[in-house]
Specification:
The protein has 84 residues and is of the alpha+beta class. It has one domain (13-81): Translation Initiation Factor IF3 (2-Layer Sandwich), CATH 3.30.110.40. The protein is 26% helix and 31% strand. The protein has a 4-stranded mixed sheet, with helices on one face. Strand 1, helix 1 and strand 2 form a beta-alpha-beta unit.
Length: 84
């Protein structure tokens, strides 16, 4: 359930890909989301300049939903809802 005015439920898992470069953030995200129950959320932190386009493309092809992408401390925070 959303807390303190958050728009989305709390992530089930979090993945830190800060300092990793293409294609590592996508590979690690793909591996990590397999451990997240369908419909639940994976949070990914990444600072690779290509991470937003790469993760968005991967999620679309894999059937997952990008709920939010926001700038955080020199990188990006992705909230990804696992699809079927």
């Amino acid at each position: 359930m959303p807390e303190r005015g958050d728009r989305f439920p709390r992530p089930t898992k979090s993945l830190d890909c800060l300092g990793l470069f293409c294609p590592e953030p996508v590979f690690r995200t793909r591996e990590e989301i397999s451990g997240v129950p369908i419909g639940q959320i994976l949070e990914v932190l990444a600072d690779d300049p290509a991470s937003e386009s790469d993760i968005r493309s991967w999620a679309r092809h894999a059937g997952h939903d990008i709920l939010e992408v926001e700038e955080v401390d020199g990188g990006k925070r992705f909230l990804i809802r696992r699809g079927a």
